[in-house]
Amino acid sequence: MTRCIFYGGKGGVGKTTCAAATGLGLADEGHETLVVSTDPAHSLADAFETDLGPDPIELRSGLSAIEIDPEARADRYERIARALAADLRSAGIRLEDADVERLFASGAPAGSDELAALDLLVEYVDADRWDVVVFDTAPTGHTLRLFDLPEVMGLALETTRSLRGQVRRIGNSARQMMFGPLAYAGGRDDEEGLENLQARMKRAHDILTDPERTEFRVVLIPETMAIAESERLVERLREAGVPVRTLVVNRVLEDAAECCSRCQSRQRRHERRLAEIRETFPDLEVVTVPETEDEVHGLETLSPIADRLSG
User: What are the φ/ψ torsions at residue 32 (nearest 5 degrees)?
Assistant: First the structure.
């Protein structure tokens, strides 16, 4: 059974670094691992110091990575939109192809980042190719939309299918009066596409809320605002039924130089924030990642962090 580990949190706290390091650590333990960036502002390629694209790329034995391109899936959603427009026209409701084209004129429509991520989540989990899929998610607002989307889309698609059925019945009645049996010529590919999309959204919801296979890890830094935002994120995720078990506190100053009073003061402040975090989240495991002087880029620099973030 493919496991899913999601990393999320406030922007700039190091989600990408944690996701990349976790993927490396899992691969070192012998797990076939895929690291997926769902953040529109991708930085996973920077973390691994390699070019990534919309298809999985093997970085080394047992470790692959991908940066999701929502536009790569836009054609799938556009076909469904065009089919709905055709149904509406058949019932006398004016919606031209130009209206659909305007929807997609500037690329993938709003929300398609999350929709593409969920679509691919189901694809990768059900492929049985990887033991673990690690997700580097967008900052908090995008992440919450990602986890709310299956339920929202499920309701929207159910309503759409119901309305589509009513529209088709009206259109079919009119066509039958005009053309008789020939009115029903043609396939159901687009209808099946809508049904498949609805099934995938339900499958995504089942995966996201399955505590046996899914875990969400919230990344934060030892600062008051980050703690408050993390508290809201954990609450919203739990309301959505998403399993949250771990907090990763990144950039913790652990070994301040004795000769540096400012560093000593900062370390004491971090220790107070860590105590506050443990008090605020008594039921969550707290893992700390030390602050480093050098930027984390490439597999070699990710290894020490991977040691802290065991799978």
Answer: -70, 115
